[in-house]
Amino acid sequence: MSLTLSAHAVVLMSIAKPIVLFLVVLAWGRWATILDKDADFYRQNRRMWNLAHIATAALAFWLCIWIVPWFWIGLPIALVMIISTSVAYAIVRNKSVPSNSRWTLSMDFIQRWILDQEVRKAEREASMRLIVTHRTGSKELQPVPLHDDPHYEAHVECEKQIDMMLTRHAQRLELSGTSTEFTTKIVVDGVAYPMPDVAVETGMDMIDYFKIQTGLDIEERRKRQYGACEIDAGELGNHVLEVRTAGSTRGLTCTIDLDRSADQLDIPLDKLGLIDSQMQQLRPALETLKGMVLVGCPPGQGRTTTLYALTESHDPYTMDIHTIENSEERPLEGVTQHLIEDEPVAKMVRTRLLREPAVLMVSNVGDEATAKLLADAAADGKRIYAGIRADNTFQALRIWLKAVSDPRKVSEGLTAVISQRLIRKLCTTCRQGFKPDPAALTKLNLPPDRVQQLFKSTGMVLVRNKEATCPACHGIGYIGRAAVFEVMVIDDESRKYIAANDMETLRKHLRRNKMLWLQDASLANVVVGLTSINEVMRVLGSKDAGDSTAPKPADPAPSDSAAPDADSKT
After folding, report:
1. Domain 265-568: which topology?
2. Span 141-260: which CATH code?
3. Which of 198, 241, 430, 496 has an alpha carbon within 20 to 30 A of 359's alpha carbon?
């Protein structure tokens, strides 16, 4: 009894001994967890071994604290007892596991075990891991670079950038570097937001890291390269990265598109966003199956999606449909798609037309020879869809007239001209309604008595009566985009004005026929609360939006915000 009390007193009167004992118990708990997982994985008698470890540890610590009067003698005895149970488990375990999984006390085994623990820790902490797809179709997660890996810093920075993209609904990451500076931007719904600065060396390593993961040549710094890979972003799901790199004397650029799925381009004609009146005017022109339909808009404004929708509005199983494209954005079922490579576009068009297709779509008409061939085919009664770069329908018509150099032929073959823009949609979580100024509404050709409320973006919400960054849009104020259209349908009277190259009279005639300019279609979306006046101003800018005599948008309320939250400042 005296020995027990003496041992108890020794422990209680020491500060160091309880701390040491606590650390030993903590280490034992961690080690027992590892043994438990190992027993479960290799199908050992898990319950029996857990009871053995716990019973041995309880006996060992009881002897150390209550029986042996000298702590520094009792502790080693306790450790020997605990280790003996682990050794017994290892001996029994090694008899039933593969030889490459057996435990030994060699330095190689210890080093491998330490490395394995580092790898496990890195995998737990990683927010992005590459997924490799094997020829058999099976997928495997790639190891995460460790601290001593030359790509470790690049991987960590890539994780930050990809996480920023995913949480802010971004579609693209743009990397650009020279010998003196490196910039990164994320593109959210067509708007680029600069990200925090990255050191030049780390930035260039990021580009090389993306190139390695997608199988590109890191030594090639000038030619354009393309690759893709799949990543596992943990709770944020699996995503596909499409990497494009190019170099010049000024430096190296890399764009990473996130989840650029073909499904995003698969929108039927009646779901594109055409206003009902526009659809009613356009449908008869499409059903004639004769003549030219021009689609003109700036790059990145949905021209390909519209051309695909127009092409797929025809039945490919009852008629011969061909396309000539710079790149196949997605496969069109039943349609013969041709890619523009080294052969001149005009030659490809001539070859296709000789086969008498019912419908021919050319994604981008960039030269006069191609324009003249298509204009001839349209005048002869073939259905042609052609894409060009233009800000609106009138500019598209002027460009087409100049390229063809024959107004009469253009008037004979032209059926319709379509232009469009993509506008950002207000975040419904944080958008704020306001009563607009009647005078400003009048300038916008909006009836003040019928428009009682408009909306603006704020990027902020109230949390316990305090302003906070909107969790849905992260302070940007917008989520997603919608298309607005300008549709010019060519009737017999319009053909006379086109043949005479009289754009001003044509404009007045179309206005009398209630043609909607891009501004009209955009403001219609403002009235219903889909977007804001500021967004319309940003998209249309000072460029001709169709009717040069129409008033330009003016903000009838305090300016709305479109800034991301603090950790993604622009």
Report:
1. Rossmann fold (3.40.50)
2. 3.30.450.90
3. 496
